[in-house]
TrEMBL record:
It comes from the Bacteria. It catalyses: [(1->4)-alpha-D-glucosyl](n) + ADP-alpha-D-glucose = [(1->4)-alpha-D-glucosyl](n+1) + ADP + H(+). It holds the Pfam family Glyco_transf_5. The lineage of its organism: Bacteria, Pseudomonadati, Bacteroidota, Flavobacteriia, Flavobacteriales. It is an enzyme of class 2 (transferase). Residues 5-179 form the Starch synthase catalytic domain. GO terms for molecular function: alpha-1,4-glucan glucosyltransferase (ADP-glucose donor) activity. This is starch synthase. The keyword Glycosyltransferase applies. Its EC number is 2.4.1.21. The keyword Transferase applies. Keywords: Glycosyltransferase, Transferase.
């Protein structure tokens, strides 16, 4: 079914990240949908390892310049864009000096999770939502990949609940076996600042607990990895949200 507007929100995508299942799957899904005549956009964080020169990223001045308030602090939102190498598919990068310049993804050189991972996820989620609105582009399908993306449906169904912009969009969440890490205990205060409270994930905030929480805020949950770890698999089996086992690429179309 061509001519759909499909938004991929992801933390990984080949070739910006290599050697992970998520990066490969997102690349293949986005390209397949693009080549079948759909209007596809991809949003991801501009992590410090992504070479701006190699991948020809450039800032989109008309989209940049917004500030997002995280925990009572103004953080400037910078939007960069590139075409997927060799393709006419646009990838947008959410950037911010404070959150995404560092060379590691989620842990420091000693393997300790960054204390601000929660703020980085909030900034990413809100940055994507605000940028889509500024683009004046209304997606039919929003497909989430990676733990940071799981904050998007939580925000859409709480903080942005009275905003009708995304009201008709269907949200798909793909589950992957990502490395677990605790999130800052003060995340409840930061979310409360945005009038978000009462989440079960706040009992023990972590990467996994927020992915599991987000299952309650989407239209469909899909296995992104064929075999999920025990906690994710249990949550997948118990969720009342419509769900699908691992899909090959040809079946993604039918899902949408």
């Amino acid at each position: 079914m061509p001519n759909q507007k499909i938004l991929y929100i992801t933390t990984e995508m080949y070739p910006y990240q290599e050697d992970t299942n998520m990066a490969a799957v997102v690349n293949k899904m986005a390209l397949k949908m693009h080549n079948e005549g759909n209007d596809v956009r991809v949003f991801m964080p501009r992590f410090g390892q992504i070479s701006e020169r190699k991948f020809q990223l450039h800032e989109v001045i008309r989209l940049s310049g917004m500030n997002i308030i995280i925990n009572d602090l103004d953080q400037p939102l910078i939007i960069k864009v590139a075409s997927l190498p060799g393709e006419r598919l646009q990838v947008y990068f959410i950037d911010n000096e404070e959150y995404f310049k560092r060379k590691q993804y989620y842990v420091d050189d000693e393997g300790n999770p960054f204390e601000d991972n929660d703020e980085r996820a909030i900034f990413f989620a809100r940055g994507v939502i605000e940028t889509i609105k500024k683009l004046n582009w209304v997606p039919d399908v929003i497909h989430l990949n990676g733990w940071m993306a799981s904050f998007v449906p939580i925000y859409l169904k709480t903080y942005y609940e009275s905003d009708t912009y995304f009201k008709d969009a269907k949200i798909v969440l793909s589950l992957y076996n990502e490395k677990e890490a605790a999130l800052d205990k003060k995340i409840d205060e930061k979310l409360k600042f945005d009038n978000i409270s009462g989440l079960k994930a706040l009992d023990n905030p972590s990467i996994k607990s927020f992915v599991i929480e987000s299952m309650n805020y989407v239209n469909m949950v899909v296995k992104g990895d064929e075999f999920l770890d025990e906690d994710l698999d249990k949550a997948f089996n118990e969720t009342s949200t419509p769900k699908s086992e691992y899909l090959d690429l040809d079946s993604i179309n039918q899902l949408y």
